[in-house]
## 1
Amino acid sequence: MSDLSFKPISLDTDTEERSRPSLSYWQDAWIRLRANKRAFTSLFVIIGMLVFACAGPLVWRIDPDAQDLDQTSKPPWGDRNALVQTYEPWEGVVSEEPQGDNLAPQSLELVGDATTTNVRLVWGPVPNSKGYRIFRQIIEPRPGDPLGLPIGETKGSTSVSFEDRLDIKPKSYWYSVVAINEEGEDFSEAATVKVDVAFSTTAANAVERGYIKDQNSVSVGDTIRVPLHPLGTDYLGRDMLARLMEGARISLFIGIVAPFLFVIAGVIYGSIAGFLGRNIDHILMRFADFVIALPFLLFMILFKLLFGIGPGESGILPMLVALVLLSWPGAARLVRGEILQIREEGYVEASRLLGTKTPRLILRHMIPNTMGVVLVTFTFAVPSAIFTEAFLSFIGMGVTAPTASWGSMCNDGIKTMESTPHELIFPALFISVTVLAFNFLGDGLRDALDARMRYGE
Amino acid sequence: MTRYVLWRLLQGVITVWFIATVTFFVMHNLPGDPLADDKAVSEKIRANLEEKLGLDKPVVEQYFIYMRNMIQGDFGLSFVHENRRVNEIIRDHFPVSAILGILAIVIAGFGGILWGALTALYRNRWPDIVIILLVILGISVPSFVFATVGQLVLVTMNNLAGFEVLPVAGWGTVAHMLIPALVLGLGTMAFLTRLMRTSMLEIVSSDFVRTAKAKGVPMAQIFSRHQLRNAVLPVVTVLGPSIAGITTGGFVVENVFGIPGLGRYFVLAVQQNDYGVIMGTTVFYGAFLVLMVILVDILYAVIDPRVRLE
Amino acid sequence: MTDTTQGAAEPVSVSSAWQLAKYGLVGLLFFVLLLAMLGWVTSYSAAGTRSTQAVDYATNTITLALSTEPPQLDSTRATDMVSGMLLGHTMEGLLRYGPDNELVPGMAESWDMDENGGTFHLRNDAYWSNGTPVTAHDFVFAWQTALNPDTASQYAFILFPIKNATGINEGEIEPGELGAKAVDDHTLEIELEQPTAYFLKLLAFPTYYPINEEFYRSTDGGYGAEAHTLIYNGPFKITKWVHDASLRLEKNELYWNRDQTRLDAIDYAYILSDANATLNLFATNKIVYAGLNSENLDRALRNRWHIKQHNDGSVFFLEINHRPDRITSNYNLRRALQLVHNPSELVYKVLKLPGNLPGESIFPVWLNGVEGRFRDEYPGPKYIINEEKAREHLAMAIEELGVDELPPLVLLSGDNPVSNKQSEYYQRLWKEKLGIEVKIDKQIFKLRLEKMTTGEFDIVAAGWGPDYHDVMTFGDLFASWNLNNRGRYANAEVDRHVAIAQSSSDPVERMEAMDRVQQLLHDDVAILVQYERGSVYVSDDRVKGVTRRAVGLDPDYTRAYIASDSED
């Protein structure tokens, strides 16, 4: 064969037309993830939640613990106009000895303004009565119906006044008064009056809450604007939005940090077991099996109590520790399986033959190649950690008051589900959206990283 | 086969011992005085109580005594229900929790497989979309919200119907079980539906399905013989761990629906440091779960011809 | 849900859908079979809740729910409210409370009492539900058992007015030496340790109920654990007790006053602690009674249910730790807290439940005094809010304690929703008004009790329910020797007045001593009284004759009856 048979091609001609730039594993995964609309949107939802939790309080500067007992359980975007009032104790009214033969109190009427601070009523006396019982209803009582909530009693037929201060909301009430006989039973006839209550606050309270600067700048009867509560308030008049932000910090902290820690623990444990193999692997994995066999929720509760909560502590740390202690073996098992597989791969063998030392082998080749599986595991572990936190807080074994988490807010809200649904709906919605977003993201990541994994382990 | 089962059972026994040991030492280190109560009692009476309940001995000695009794099947006395033995409590209440759990897992399993198969079959058409919406609800709403809302729905339903369609709370007949079991199983059902769908779709494009198609096997046969059967496998693997979650997670449902299950006892016992009941329930639950996982493993081996029992 | 395969969507084959439907059908069939089987198993395990209506005219039965399972029904050891309520329906002591809360004869037909003791004549027609007569021995046995240190009864103290009882409980005297002797089967002689003006009122309390010795021994340590390990001498007997599920009372035909019992059965068909679930049962006409809380009041109102209110007798207070190593032992600090203490705000704006009364004194309003109500006769001091003065006292306290800034106060709290709300409220109140930091120490039941006993708190929210209808049930609470005085408040003056009220037979002298006690507790800021608890509930109007009480059996269905339709 002569030299002429082969002619060197010139180096400047690029024969290889690359159709696209070479991509690393992660770049490729990123492109695939971006193509998956659902997963990509979820990623933004999660980032949004994190921003909401961390940066939210910088924008919405309301103290989540600040109580305003004048406006408890207020619905979203509630009335902001408050009547300024002072509260002076009321002596009440004592009437003349009653005359006539009426059974129902006559001329039941309101004294002064009906406000959320107080509602004062007077009525005409009823002969032969031992006292009066006062009822309050939130819908108009029909004839023959019960009169509503018994809010108080007066003694003697001449004590014909009553002051209601019990949790008055700015809405309409129907007050009824019935005379009581010797046996303490109600007379058959009642007097009823409808009262429209105005939202009020005292000047002192307004100053204390910072609604106004100076107590003397307003006088009784003025109307002032109280701060907006876009998502309403809770049972102690705390701003729901601010509490949801605080709750987000707690719930997301536990939801993200706990899986992060136990996944790391799992990676270390699993790679040691997987790499060392044989007897050590066997012993380590048996131990992991034992831990997996512990009934999860029962031990969550036991561990949580074991680590205890001191005065003033929020109870986040014990929960975190308990979660990590019980959840690491799942990740460990997964990583160990991956490592066992990777150990047999050709490139590991090649690297070993080239004289790579063991630590480098683990760090450079094995662990990075398990990262796909680890990331997906982590993403799926977040929603279950969030659920666990919510569940524990719901049964009263979670964070302690006044710390708020979405779960503890649900626990508070579920009791008033019917009358003030916003106290349940908002925290529940936040839990749902977050959990869903992490699930979708997990799906997307799994596809993008092509990380096949066995569920539930 | 027998050897494998025996080996697994032996492992199970060791696991239960491990659970019992951990529980024992965790429990004895729980803060709180198990003998304290609303009314203060004198030192003398306290000492008597300690002696009666065996709390006066060193913890390690108590541990050996407890283990000896446990091997003989005696879980001791309840501290709170003073005249009842823990054995009786377990005997009375565990079946209730187990029935509820089994029903929930059956609903979740069947529902998951059925809906999953259906969504895969009608991919991107309306049955798929409807079911996926339900699945989203199932995975994202906490079970305690379902329980409370579910009961309220029952109340409204019964009041609208004018007669009792399904009882609101209580225990005793099939009608009492349905809604609590459904509430309990919903989350798992949603999870299994997802799993089933994914695995169905994966199998559609697998080699053996393609081969079968090429051979001209009828669609229905491919669907049932190859696709469905193989897609069920991953669902079966997760059943074991799911049972764990469902049975121990039952106490909110038990509380809301007034069901006399063991879960309620556990929560009460923990709050009252009732050592006897804490030990009894945890060990018993643990043993039950270990057994369930073993059963599922065996079941898996039966379904999947690729797995050989060694 | 994600499509892992990128292949084109398979056309839906109708045959595949049919196949799936077939599988589904088979699955459904299997499911129904499983249900039937489980239903069958459950019906045999006898945990059944019968689906009866709230009121059953045919069987003259009412259905109720219990909030918790009674731990056991051994009267010597029962401590909780549910046990007390059930025992009150099924057992009877020497005396019991009548419809107007007056003492009426029970097992004892008549009695002669003087300062040092008395003789009780038991009725001849009193029988246990197994047919054996109720004798004086049964009382002596029950009391000796309760006092026996081996029994470790928490309520042994209530027997202490009887001669030698304290010594027996401490294990220093033989139980046989108890100052209660059965002279014959129907005569019981009681000797008192010292004159006790309120002794008769104690006799209606469960610890004073009789126990038949022979039967007690036959149960081999299981007395009171099951329906069949108990015998009854009261208006009802327990015929079925399925633990944690249901409990059924039926009329006791051997009860001496059986004509008074008008219901044939009371079926506690549910044991439910969840308030909303209980209300759901009421809403569907399954039970005749449901308690309300501030959260579900509106629901009851919107449904136009008949809401009633009742004062349950207990008083709640913030117990302050007076141990010398605690900063709360400083008077000025306590006084500062007192001057911002606002019970009406707590009741009206935080607890939000009608019936709760803003607290003023450790003695609740319903207690009897010399002739009328104690608090009408001796109103006692009132809380006066004065923030300015509070800050002055706080400044003095800081100076006295020698600190720059007050260390945070530890507020020990229970883990139920009501204590939660309160703790959060107080934390904010003291922070805002006085600038005092508060650390809430929320603990589960047993741990809270342990911390209360060992004194690891500055302030703890506590409550006290009455055991008998006399001022003394609250009066000795802060005597230095009382073990339930968890803040270790010690004041010789208080002790002296308590001793007077305990042993004096002169009502005026006793009440005046108690008035001094409430005054001293206020002036020294021993505690901060929060509220007197009331409860609000809905009940079925068809059930009449139910008695509510602050002390003793409550709610009392022993005279209840179902009104016929025409009466409505």
Note: The mean pLDDT of chain B is 83.
## 2
Amino acid sequence: MSSQLIWLIFLLPVISFLIISLLIKPFVNRESRIAGYLTILAIGTSLALSLLTLSAVMSAPNHKIEVPDISWLTIGNLNVHVGLLVDSLTAVMLVVVTLVSLMVQVYSLGYMKDNWDHGNTAYHRYYAWMSLFTASMLGVILADSLLLVFVFWEMVGLCSYLLIGFWFHRPSAANAAKKAFIVTRFGDFGFLVALLLIFAKTQTFDIEELYGIAGTAVLAGSVLTWAAIGIFAGAMGKSAQFPLHLWLPDAMEGPTPVSALIHAATMVAAGVFLVARTLPIFVHSIEALTTVAIIGAVTAIFAASMGLVMTDIKRVVAYSTISQLGYMMLGLGAAGIGIARGGETGIEAAKAAAAVGIFHLFNHAFFKALLFLGAGSVNHATGTFDMRLMGGLRKAMPWTFATFLIASLSLAGIWPLSGFWSKDEILAVALENQPVLFYLAMITVFMTAFYIFRVLFLTFGGEYRGTSHETHVPRGAHGGHGPHLHESAPVMVAPMVALSVLAIASGWWNASGGFARFMGEEHVEAIGFFGVLTHGLPWLSLIVAGSGILLAYLMYSRKVISAERIGSAFKPLYTLFSRKYYFDELYENIIVRKILIGGLFVGLEKIDTYGVDGVVNTVAKGAYADGKALRRLQTGQLQLYGLVIGIGILAIILVLYLFG
Amino acid sequence: MSFSYLSAIVFLPLVGAILVALFGGGREKLVKYLSAVFTAVPLVIAVIAFLNFDRSAGASIYQFEEKAVWIPALNANYHLGVDGLSLPLVALTAFLGLMVVLISWKIHTRVREYFAWLLLLEASILGVFASLDLLLFFIFWEIEIIPMYFLISVWGSGRKEYSSIKYVIFTLAGSALMLAGILSVYFTTGSLDIVDLADKQLAMVQSIMPASLIFFLLITGFAVKLPVAPLHTWLPDAHTDAPTAGSVMLAGALIKMGGYGIIRVVSFFPQVARDYAPLMLTLAVISVLYGAAVTLRQTDLKRLIAYSSVSHMGLVLLGAFALTEVSLTGAALQMVSHGLLTGLLFAMAGFTIHNVEERRLDKLGGLARQMPVAAVVFSIASLGSLGLPLTSGFAAEFITLAGSFSSQVVNGAPVFTLLAAIGVVLAAGYILWLIQRTLYGPVKEQYNEVKDADTLERVYMFTFVALIVLVGIYPAVLTDIIKLGIAPIAGLFG
């Protein structure tokens, strides 16, 4: 497969962005749908090319395609080149991103139909940014140097900022967008420092060169650990890992399809991808890997606990994303520790170790996108995201219900749906390398099954509770249609059905170890589709997940157990979860408002005004009087003054030519 | 004799100023067209010079040289010439010169004087960058004060008398020290020639004055202009109260004279620069962090941008005194990049203030709806200033930081660099706050009549954006030239 075609995967969405923003937006009627069709065409073609790339990589030797570099910038010892790194990790991610993005773009045709802003050019703007968002994420995946990854990494951040703040006239959206950007930028600071450190030590940013250098005397020991932790800090920001998780739940201020894209394929996936990409560097530092694993496991259970009590359907799903990303990090960390302890820290072994985490990313992308699209569909019908105002939607929205059920089962990890396969592998690798974290992960399995079925029963089960529409509808994108329950348009249902097929089947790729082999694992135990049920661990996790579902059923469907009573019995815990462990208060009110803006910076400003400038003003006051007098002399005669200067300079020129 | 590129670039705006002053009375259109022509032609020549600059190996460092004896008794020459460091700055100034004329198209008070001063200002800044003789350099440096003073005090706003006087006093105090420095250089070496001095590297520690004293005399003058905290307090006032074109020129080109001078002084005194690098780097870090922290407290649109300049120019000082080829190139690129970004930011702030008639951030808001085109441009300028990749801001900051962090010349350079990099995080805070407070949020009814950018305004806005993105995506367009000027300087430090 020629490298030009691989470049096109990235360039097509870029071209679509440029055409929409430079040609369509200024010159085409704002009612026109052409921006949407163009984006779908571009990303659809990218998907086709990604599938071609995947098959080409599968048949290529070492699962890798060489693409020539372009020299970009040379200053002293700073050499920057631009190129693509196409290996199995790249190929898998390309398919995930283009596929999910395509589904989301198609769905948006229906979803954004009623949601544009009163004749504004929002429709074009939406698709321009969606194109750029997808392109940036593809850039992160394809880039062959860490510097280039960082460039697109920041572009992903920018696009999420623009899309979360899509309805920028709402203060809540503008705030959420700003929060997302600033919180992730804290992580990016770590990434930046890691880049500086790596450059200072190795004089290169090239990922494959770094694979070779890592572990040698040039890059080893504490320097390598710090560089790895810096990279991980960047990943923590993007993948919303504790304690940089704050931005993601607020990020649903954007349109729901945007959330689907952010949570499934772009943005949050970037963090996990980055760790997977640099895992051959991480494996030389057990400390860094342990950090990754611990942060992952803690995030998984911590986010799941908050998901238990939220009443906004999108928020529950958002916390579920954070929790699942924690799983992926745990998978990467634990698998890395496994090979680091085994002493085989070769590049291929390290790349293969990423298979566990990336496989969960792969499966998660489909069922999580589906959950968000389902939430959007529900919102379309009810005009709200508040589950207390829903219920009984099963009858009115059979397709949405069916697909949401499939996604929920997949998320809960029920055999034989996709989530089962990858979660099981993470649990296995955690049990082997980090037993303590395994128990945290197991508790999370229970919580996950419980909260997602709580959503399912509250939303689709029982009777509709939203008829008393005097209740304040907090927000939501609705075109003024009241509680007129209906299934969404076919253009929205079709992508959901397509994703639900993947949510069932994508996990089968690794049922007999195909995915792991593709990622470079040599010794794969072929367990088999049914063979997996002959092992103990899968049964344990199935039982735990099943009891979570059962509890949700008893509490929210049969109502045998009163949710209120449990809530009041565990009041302090309930409050702690629903107030999100008070992290928002800690960061925003105490650290930012009180200590920094209100304290330190005020102090500095006072110093500036009264200290530094005070001295100056004392001197200047005297001069001011003189200046006033001087100015009075000049008023009205400026032209003369200018003329005099002009003549003076002319004289200099004359002198010059006379004597020169 | 071949065409005198530099004389033409420097003196055409001056000729324009004289013509405007002589014939511009009462004829507003004529004044504006004259000004546009006499700034557009130097820009074209500067672009041609930029393209014709010999980049081959073995080409002379200084090109387009013109030399004529001026004051033989002082060994002072009329000596112009540019190297890789100064040529981009000449081109930047010529570019901004034309842009500020377009930006000022809506000026209707005392048009003739206004444009005459504006053109004189451009000529003097160009002269500073093009001079290779210290006396000539100093004269251009001093001339610049006069037009700037009048631009602020007559066409400014707010406490304009205070600000303009403050500007003059600060600059004069700085240049008094600088003059003393230049004279000391002259009396110790008998030369005023910048090329000569760089070659000699002023190995004159045994002269009557210690080299470090001369170094600090010169550096202080430049540090006022850059500005380096704590010598920066003239800048927020001058920027805030200057007319839009004045702010653009001030932030875009004028303060670059400081950075340019500092890099030149480093090349004269490599040993002293190395000895005092930790001190200078400390000042750089203070400028970056302190500037950013104070920026976060600002409530006035222009004042906020002004303080952010203090922070951004701190990076120039950082790159200059990390003393490596990469860091010095980064510092030079940061100057050009900041000129474009902050030039555009001030243009956008001026545009907003002119159209909305409000400059307090707590009163603004929701303008993205009423002025969508301007909002996009404003956002791009802001994001560039925040250091977003694919804008010149990122390229410059990253090269500076990468060069400084890996410096083997100065001990502790990584620590200084890390501290300065925190400024990048703080920048995200104030820039996003600025955008949100100005453009986002609920639409305000009282601004429904606010006009978006008209055709002329779009022309200059888009030109700025195109350059910012060009440099951001392909920084080599500038760094390939800059490094030719920087390599000999970096070579002094091994």
Note: Chain B is about 75% helix and 5% strand.
